[in-house]
Amino acid sequence: MSKDTLPGLTLCNNAVLRRATRKLGQFYDDVVAPSGLKATQQGLLYQIHIGDEPAMGAIAAALVMDLSALGHTLKPLIRDGYVETFTDPDDRRIKRVRLTPQGSVKLDEAMKLWRVAQQRFEDMVGKEQAAMLRAALDDIAALDFGIPPAAP
Amino acid sequence: MSKDTLPGLTLCNNAVLRRATRKLGQFYDDVVAPSGLKATQQGLLYQIHIGDEPAMGAIAAALVMDLSALGHTLKPLIRDGYVETFTDPDDRRIKRVRLTPQGSVKLDEAMKLWRVAQQRFEDMVGKEQAAMLRAALDDIAALDFGIPPAAP
DNA sequence: CGCAAACAGTGGCATATGCCACTAATTGAA
DNA sequence: TTCAATTAGTGGCATATGCCACTGTTTGCG
């Protein structure tokens, strides 16, 4: 064999997960790139699309992502005119997000490419295997690791 | 049900993978935090540790990570004195990496915490399930998506 | 009503990652 | 030997993510 570079960390669930994410991320990024979007951005636009002018907090929760991280990630999309935000009139703490017309067009464009990536990936690992993997990963994302704060 | 916030992107292999990575990353980070390291840094130190003064390229390959990204990630560890680099005398293009004494100590400290995280995680999802998941993720990291360049 | 606690975001700072252009070293011919 | 092609890293720029400290809003008492 010629590609057993360094074995090792293959035991850390977190490390292995990150490694796979880098690899798959590069693949989806490559395929979606012609649209000018990163795979993460395409996913975010999609998440916004399927929501009904979702609040930032709702999006962050759905993506299991830090609220401030979402805010940062949203900036380039706002700057490029794909997304816009507005304060919820019923609760001015809440800021809702929606796609602009250009954003919708861009999402359509990216989704076409995404389907190609998705298909290619599933052709390689098998549709069932992919579904099982997603289920397992969904479970992880839904795990409830203990209580960070204290219980007074 | 009360927590079905937004469904959706659960079909994109890449998005689901990233989401799980964020979640698990936060968990491992939290547990390893007392050492002052991020889980990614602990993993990187470990990778260096198990290698024999590995070259940067070898580490990057093992982690399926961009070489420049590795360089960037290494900087804070070098700055904090946990890692040092040196040019390979037989090929001065190559820069090798090794842990400093403090780096070894710090890694030991972090590994103790890592074991706790690893154990807690496997207690939750099951040792077998975790092993299967790692295997599946390893396969993904090893996938060979077509040829980016052309074949002249 | 009035104010403290809880909630939703923002901004700043730091790490994690990638891509690209560029430099330094080697290698492989001609 | 000499020079083009290849290899290994670096630096700059941009996105991806997190945590923390703060600000503006609401909500819930007393």
TrEMBL record, chains A, B:
InterPro entries: HTH_MarR-typ, MarR/SlyA-like, Tscrpt_reg_MarR-type_CS, WH-like_DNA-bd_sf, WH_DNA-bd_sf. It holds the Pfam family HTH_27. GO terms for molecular function: DNA binding; DNA-binding transcription factor activity. The keyword Transcription applies. Residues 10-142 form the HTH marR-type domain. Keywords: DNA-binding, Transcription, Transcription regulation. It comes from the Bacteria. GO terms for biological process: response to stress. This is MarR family transcriptional regulator.
